[in-house]
Amino acid sequence: MTAYPASNLISALPTLFDAHGEVDLGATKTAYAQLAETPLDGVFVAGTTGEFTTLTDDERLAVCAVAADAFGPERTYWHVGAASTHQAVRLTRTAVDLGARQLAVLTPYYFPATEAALLAYYEQVVAAAAGVPVYGYLFAARTTVAVPPALLAGLAATGLAGVKISGESTALVGEYVAALADRGIPVYSGADAEFAEVVAAGGAGVVSGVSSALPKPFLEVRDALRTGDADALAVARERAHRAVAVTRQGNLAHLKAVLELRGVPASGLRAPLDAISPEDRRALEADVADLL
User: Fold this and answer.
1) Per-residue pLDDT band at 176 (split at 50, 70, 90)
2) Which residues are the active-site ones (predicted)?
3) pLDDT tens, 180-198?
4) If you compute the radius of gyration of the chain from its CA atoms, what whole number of angstroms results?
5) Average pLDDT estimate for 102-110
């Protein structure tokens, strides 16, 4: 098989909360310090897996700062996307002042932003970043804002350093790659289970929520892609697919339950999602035993 030596694995990190629903920076630091012992290429902080829509701006920045301490500034992508340009610019400036060296920015959300509004949004965020790389983040299913490949090429012209695509097929990710081919900027997918397919389509790798709790199988996929070892890749892909399946496609309650198995303090959810049931917790413990 073809080797892909530039394949990257970036983990999307969870945020941990205490029994009262407050951000637990101590537990979050414990989880991040443990994951930092693995050779990830980067971490995506305060995104969807990090329940960012439930966090105040100060909480988001504090969680990102904890990640930067654990993983180093060059491997930490601070998510500063917001519903408004005003808020995104403010978060961007503060993050840079706090030492951010990589930024990720979701499109505006809730209101269906126009093309002109999107261009203005990224132009102003890139300007506020003052030279710090800005990665666009597209997630039409959650934001109501669709960005077709041709429009992404226009957004990239604002100075984006790369892009993450979530909730789209690998075939469409390939179209985004083609649309940005002349700019040479990396395209990542949020599809944990399609790491190999994304890379084969020209993507730079995946931003994976499941790997934040179960990094080993995804690192095995990455390493097999880098060396072009087809046999190792087949085994690693099966293990990564199992990791996605047993965590219910990265369900946050399941991911946090896996973190507990790894010795991280228990954490609830702020997002309006159901907690893991006792039966599912017992099944999960057995299912992940050889993936930890």
Assistant:
1) very high
2) 137 (proton donor/acceptor), 164 (schiff-base intermediate with substrate)
3) 999 999 999 999 999 999 9
4) 18
5) 98
Domains contained in the chain, CATH given: 8-287 (3.20.20.70)
Whether 189 and 170 have beta carbons less than 8 Å apart is answered as: yes
The one-character DSSP state at 164 is E
Whether 256 is catalytic: no
Q: Using an 8 Å Cβ cutoff, are 85 and 124 in contact? A: yes
**Tokens describing residue 167:** 């909730």
Which residues have a Cβ under 8 Å from the Cβ of 31 and sit 6 or more positions away?
13, 14, 16, 259, 264
Write down the residue that tokens 């690998």 correspond to: 170
Annotated binding site: 49, 207
Residue 143 tokens, joined: 């934001």
Apex 248 CA angle, 109 and 211, nearest 5 = 80
Q: Is the overall model pTM greater than 0.85, yes or no?
A: yes
Residue where the block lists tokens 């408004």 = 84
| Euclidean distance between CA atoms 102 and 72, whole angstroms | 11
Instruction: Give the residue ranges of the annotated binding site for pyruvate.
Output: 49, 207
pLDDT for residue 292: 94
Mean confidence (pLDDT) of the chain = 97
Of the residues 121, 135, 164, 188, which is catalytic?
164
Check 137, 176, 188, 256 and give the catalytic one: 137
